[in-house]
């Protein structure tokens, strides 16, 4: 699924947590709308960098902030521990810094950014949308779980497109449907959730848990990309 090589680099930016780090991929054209890519509980692993590269190949400037400060793992128990040690408020503040950094880059042509994230990152997509206001115009959580999921969605102004699994052991589909309803009722924004006959983390083709489902992943990705193209300007 890796696209042709695109310009990319590791970057450092300021947040209220101090200096933060991330990975940015830039279209061959040198410019494009901005998208924040938020990691799963494994850390800023190659798969997340690949998502950035794929978005850049489609014309986006894609930034993946490193929420763990360089730590990565491929062990589920260790990943759960790493996630539990990341305070939701700290992660949210770092992501807000990433949004400002991305919007201030010369390569970014959009006045807003999109946000797409997976697992823990899907939860933080919703948190970021709730806190960033009009700076985030499109929020795309994939099976968002973890402490990043906010209790209230009243401050979300972004359009929301969710991708959730019907056989998710981490976030049962009934809870996902309740979340969809809550966002729609509290935010008053456009909300569309899709549900797939798949397990948790079905989009990750490098998932150590072996949950990747190619057909569902491709469909979800096509929907997500179109949504970002339509809503990030």
From TrEMBL:
Family matches, as InterPro entries: AB_hydrolase_fold, Dienelactn_hydro, Dienelactone_hydrolase-like
GO molecular function: hydrolase activity
Residue ranges occupied by any Dienelactone hydrolase domain in the UniProt entry: 22-230
Family matches, as Pfam families: DLH (PF01738)
UniProt protein name: Carboxymethylenebutenolidase
